C-alpha cells in the first residue's frame, strides 16, 4: 500500500505529533544523550528503557521509532485527534492482535531553526525492490554540502523520502522533486503534506520530467552504486552498468541550469586499470561549467560490494548473497575495475573560462562542506577575474585567520633539525600545503597591506634572486592557496583587523 496523507489526516497527525513533542529535541530530551546515541547506532534497547516513563511521547517513540506493538488505547491517546484506524487507512499503521504497529518509518528530523517529520519505509522492508530509504548517511552528507544561498528554483532529482527538498524549502522559493519510483513519490508527497510544504513532484527517470526547464540549483543523491546493469534496489542501482548513469547524467545537467546555476551530486566512478579516475570523470563534463569533484573515499572491489550488500541488510554468508556478490565481483573484474571512488560533484554553469578541479579529500569532516563549496565558487570567480599575472600581482591577499604554519623536525645529533613546513587550515576541509622557506616568508607578508607584487620585490631583495623567477615559480601555487582558502583576497574580509587597546 502506498502512503496517502490527505489534508485532514495530515493536519490531525501533525497535531498529535506536535502536542506530544515528537520533535528532534523532544525525542532527544526524553531518551537522554546515551540512549539517543545508541538508537542512532541501531541499538534500540536503551531507548526502549528510556521511553518507559515517557507517557504519550514514549508511546510514539516505541511505536514509530522502535518497531514496538502498542495497545489500542495508548495509540489512540498518543495520536489524537487522529484515530488509529485513520492512520492505518493512510498507510501509517497496521493492526496486529494486541494493538497497532507502524507500517512506515515516521521520524522527527531537523536542522538549526527547522523541525520536520520524514516518512520512509521501515528497515524491515529493506529488501523490497522499491524500498524507500529514510535519512541516511549519504542524505546527510549531501545536505551538509549543499549551497544554502537564496535561490529562485531548485530541483531535487531522485527525491525519495524528500529529505533534500525539505532542506531546500528553507532557501529556494520553488522546489521541484522528481523520482522514477511511484512509491518514493508517494512517500515524498506524504512527507511534504505532513510538513505543510508546497513542493512540486514529478514522475520519471533522470531529467525527463523537467525537459526544457532550468533551475538555479540542482541537488541529487542518485542511485550511484556501480555494479552490473540490473536493478535489485531502486534506491541504489541505476540499472546501467558501472558508472554509466553518472556519465550520461552529467553532460545533460548544464542545459537544466540557469546561468550561474549550481548542481551538486553525490556520485561514484570506477578506477579502471590503465586509466586515471580524473580523466574518466572529466570526460563526462559538459562544456561551460566550473567543476569541483571531491573524491572522499576509494574502496577496493571487495570492500565496495561488501559495503553495499551489508547496507541492503543481506547476510553476507548466506548462499544466495554469496552467489550475487560473486557475480558482482566478476562483473567488476571483467570491466578491469581496480577500485571504486565516491564523492561530491559540484557543477556551475559559467560564461567564463571554466575551472575544473578534481582532488581527493579523505577523512572525517568536522565542519559542513556547504560553506566551503560556497567559498570555492567565490574564490574561483575571483581567480577568474584575476586571471592574468598582472591582476594577481596587484591584489592584496591575507593568510586566512584559521591557518597555522606547521614545522616538522627530526631528532638529530644537535637536537631537533627542521625538515619541512606546511600551511594548514584548521577549519573546513583542513587543506594543507607544504611550503619552503621563501614561500613561508612570502606568506608571512600576506597581511592584506601590500600588493602581492611588492611582496615579491621584497622577497627577491632578501633572497638575492630575480623577482621574475620568483614570481614565475610561485604564482601557480599561490592560485592553489587562494582556491583552497588558505590565502584570502582582502575584499573578502568582513572587518579590518584592529589591535586591542
Ligand atoms: C539514494 S536515494 C536518495 C533519496 C533522497 N534524495 C536522499 O537524499 O536520501 C535515490 C533515489 O533516486 C531514485 N531513482 C532511482 N533511479 C532513478 C532514476 N532513473 N531517475 C530518477 N530517480 C531515480 C530512487 O527511487 C531513490 O528515491
Report on this model:
The chain has 501 residues and is an alpha/beta fold. Helix content is 38%, strand content 26%. It has 18 helices and 18 strands. Strands 7-6-5-8-9-11-10-12 form an eight-stranded mixed β-sheet. A three-stranded antiparallel β-sheet has the order 17-13-18. A three-stranded antiparallel β-sheet has the order 14-15-16. Strand 14 and strand 15 form a beta hairpin. The radius of gyration is 26 Å and the shape is elongated. The relative contact order is 0.07. About 1% of the residues have low confidence. The structure holds S-adenosylmethionine. The site of S-adenosylmethionine has 23 residues, from helix 7, helix 8 and strand 6.
Describe the structure concisely.
The protein is an alpha/beta fold and 501 residues long. It has 18 helices and 18 strands. The structure holds S-adenosylmethionine.
Please supply descriptive tags for the structure shown above.
501 residues, alpha/beta, 18 strands, single chain, binds S-adenosylmethionine, 18 helices, 8-stranded mixed β-sheet, 3-stranded antiparallel β-sheet
Helix and strand composition category: alpha/beta
Number of helices: 18
Low-pLDDT segments, ≥5 res: 492-497
Average predicted confidence as pLDDT: 95
Fraction of residues in H or I helices:
25-40%
Q: Determine Rg (CA atoms, Å).
A: 26 Å
Provide the spatial order of strands within the biggest beta sheet.
7-6-5-8-9-11-10-12
Name the hetero compounds present: S-adenosylmethionine
Tertiary shape? elongated
Counted beta strands: 18
Strand content: 25-35%
Largest sheet at a glance?
A: 8 strands, mixed
**N-end to C-end Cα span:** 70 Å
Amino acid at each position: 500500500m502506498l502512503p496517502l496523507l490527505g489534508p485532514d489526516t495530515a493536519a490531525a497527525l501533525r497535531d498529535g505529533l506536535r502536542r506530544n513533542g515528537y520533535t528532534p529535541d523532544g525525542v532527544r530530551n526524553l531518551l537522554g544523550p546515551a540512549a539517543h546515541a545508541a538508537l542512532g547506532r541501531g541499538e534500540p534497547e536503551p531507548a526502549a528503557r528510556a521511553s518507559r516513563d515517557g507517557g504519550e511521547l514514549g508511546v510514539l517513540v516505541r511505536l514509530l521509532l522502535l518497531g514496538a506493538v502498542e495497545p489500542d488505547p495508548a495509540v489512540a491517546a498518543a495520536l489524537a485527534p487522529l484515530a488509529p484506524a485513520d492512520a492505518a487507512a493512510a498507510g501509517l499503521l497496521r493492526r496486529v492482535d494486541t494493538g497497532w504497529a507502524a507500517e512506515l518509518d515516521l521520524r522527527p528530523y531537523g536542522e538549526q531553526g527547522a523541525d520536520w517529520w520524514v516518512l520512509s519505509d521501515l528497515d524491515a522492508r529493506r529488501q523490497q525492490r522499491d524500498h524507500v530509504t529514510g535519512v541516511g548517511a549519504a542524505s546527510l552528507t549531501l545536505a551538509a554540502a549543499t549551497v544554502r544561498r537564496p535561490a529562485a528554483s531548485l530541483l531535487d532529482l531522485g527525491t525519495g523520502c524528500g529529505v533534500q527538498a525539505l532542506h531546500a524549502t528553507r532557501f529556494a522559493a520553488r522546489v521541484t522533486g522528481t523520482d522514477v519510483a511511484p512509491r518514493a513519490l508517494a512517500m515524498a508527497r506524504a512527507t511534504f503534506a505532513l510538513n505543510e510544504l508546497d513542493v512540486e513532484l514529478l514522475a520519471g527517470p533522470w531529467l525527463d520530467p523537467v525537459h526544457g526547464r532550468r533551475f538555479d540549483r540542482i541537488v541529487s543523491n542518485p542511485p550511484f552504486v556501480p555494479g552490473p546493469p540490473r536493478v535489485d534496489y531502486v534506491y541504489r542501482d541505476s540499472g546501467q552498468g558501472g558508472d554509466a548513469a553518472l556519465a550520461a547524467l552529467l553532460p545533460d545537467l548544464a542545459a537544466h541550469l540557469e546561468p550561474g546555476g549550481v548542481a551538486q551530486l553525490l556520485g561514484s566512478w570506477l578506477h579502471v586499470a590503465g586509466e586515471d579516475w580524473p580523466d574518466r570523470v572529466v570526460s563526462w563534463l559538459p562544456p561551460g561549467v566550473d567543476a569541483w569533484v571531491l573524491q572522499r573515499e576509494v574502496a577496493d572491489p571487495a570492500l565496495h560490494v561488501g559495503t553495499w550488500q551489508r547496507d541492503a541488510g543481506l547476510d553476507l554468508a548466506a548462499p544466495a548473497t554469496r552467489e550475487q556478490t560473486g557475480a558482482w565481483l566478476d562483473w567488476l573484474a571483467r570491466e578491469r575495475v581496480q577500485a571504486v571512488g565516491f564523492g561530491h560533484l559540484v557543477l556551475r554553469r559559467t560564461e567564463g573560462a571554466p575551472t575544473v578541479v578534481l582532488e581527493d579529500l579523505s577523512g572525517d569532516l568536522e565542519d559542513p562542506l556547504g560553506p566551503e563549496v560556497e567559498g570555492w565558487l567565490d574564490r574561483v570567480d575571483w581567480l577568474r577575474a584575476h586571471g592574468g599575472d598582472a591582476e594577481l600581482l596587484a591584489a592584496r591577499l591575507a593568510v586566512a585567520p584559521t591557518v597555522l604554519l606547521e614545522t616538522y623536525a627530526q631528532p638529530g645529533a644537535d637536537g631537533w633539525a627542521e625538515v619541512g613546513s606546511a600551511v594548514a587550515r584548521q577549519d573546513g576541509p583542513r587543506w594543507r600545503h607544504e611550503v619552503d622557506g621563501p614561500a613561508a616568508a612570502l606568506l608571512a607578508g600576506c597581511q592584506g597591506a601590500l600588493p602581492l607584487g611588492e611582496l615579491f620585490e621584497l622577497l627577491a631583495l632578501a633572497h638575492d634572486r630575480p623577482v621574475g623567477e620568483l614570481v614565475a615559480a610561485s604564482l601557480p601555487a599561490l592560485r592553489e592557496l587562494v582556491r583552497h582558502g588558505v590565502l584570502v583576497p582582502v575584499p573578502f574580509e568582513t572587518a579590518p583587523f584592529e589591535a586591542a587597546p
